[in-house]
Amino acid sequence: MTDTLQAIGQALSNDVRTLTTISHNVANISTPGYRGVRTVPQFDAAAGLSEVTVLRDGGLAQTARPMDLALQGSGFFTVERDGQVLLVRAGAFRVDRDGWLVTAAGDRVLGTSGPIAMPAGDVRVDADGALRQGTQALGQLQLVTVADAAQLRPAGAGAFAFDGALVPAQAQVVQGALERSNVEPADEMLRLMETTRHAESVQRAMSMYDKAMDVGINKLGEN
């Protein structure tokens, strides 16, 4: 009896969690650089689901703003927040009043030698992440990738924390553009329909189980 109730309860909990990720994905369809999230079963069925970040590329939106940078290919920009290195995909960067290249949230963008100081004037960003002003090299964006997307943890403002090893990425930088969200509306609609139908079948199973228990208890009371 207990095992059956636990199985039904776990199934409903999994469906609710999946619906939550779908809702969050749909809400961020227009968020530049947003990475969609999927729920996947854990090896231990009793443990429920885990969430995995989808790393496929999103489309490009041309902006013509020189500090808007998009990545194409597997990888992340690196930023510093409160002494911690975080990973971001959204490249809507700007220069703060102290002359540092920062994200929209104010995190300093990291190069291979640390935070990047920006001079006045136009700056060119090459496909490999090199920053130049005329013939002067200004630095090199630190672009990294991760081996296991399941270890990425949301850190707020579109950033991710990662405890594993970071390796240089082979991604290309596109200046004057932003990467769109990688959420596919059709995929999310299909997942919504499948999850909703599964939740309805679990609810029917719960109702049948409840009726069976009620009949059993009534028969015991008659004896």
Search tags:
223 residues; alpha+beta; 2 domains; 8-stranded antiparallel beta sheet; 3-stranded antiparallel beta sheet; cell projection; Flagellar hook-basal body protein; LlgE_F_G-like_D1; bacterial flagellum; FlgE/F/G-like
Report mean pLDDT, rounded to a whole number: 88
Q: What oligomeric state do these chains adopt?
A: single chain
Proportion of helical residues = 25-40%
**Rg to the nearest angstrom?**
24 Å
The number of helices is 2
The count of DSSP E runs of length 2 or more, i.e. the number of strands, is: 19
Into how many domains do the coordinates divide?
2
Main sheet: strands, sense, barrel: 8 strands, antiparallel
- What percent strand? 25-35%
Q: Which spans of ≥5 residues are poorly predicted at pLDDT below 50?
A: none
What structural category characterises the helix and strand content? Answer: alpha+beta
User: What sort of overall outline do the alpha carbons produce when their principal axes are compared?
Assistant: elongated
> What is the succession of H and E elements?
HEEEEEEEEEEEEEEEEEEEH
N→C terminal distance: 21 Å
Subcellular location: Bacterial flagellum basal body
Domain Flagellar hook protein FlgE/F/G-like D1: 70-130
Protein name: Flagellar hook-basal body protein
Pfam families: Flg_bbr_C (PF06429), LlgE_F_G_D1 (PF22692)
Structure commentary:
By secondary structure, this protein is of the alpha+beta class. The protein has helices at 2-27, 185-222, and strands spanning 37-41, 49-53, 60-62, 69-72, 76-81, 84-88, 94-95, 101-102, 108-111, 114-115, 124-125, 130-133, 136-140, 143-146, 153-156, 159-161, 166-168, 172-175, 177-179. The protein folds into two domains: 1-29 and 183-223; 56-179, no CATH class. The strands form six sheets. Strands 5, 6, 9, 10, 14, 15, 16 and 17 form an eight-stranded antiparallel beta sheet that branches. Strands 11-12-13 form a three-stranded antiparallel beta sheet, with no helix packed on it. It has a two-stranded antiparallel ribbon with strand order 1-2. The radius of gyration is 24 Å and the shape is elongated. The protein starts with a helix and ends with a helix. The mean pLDDT is 88.
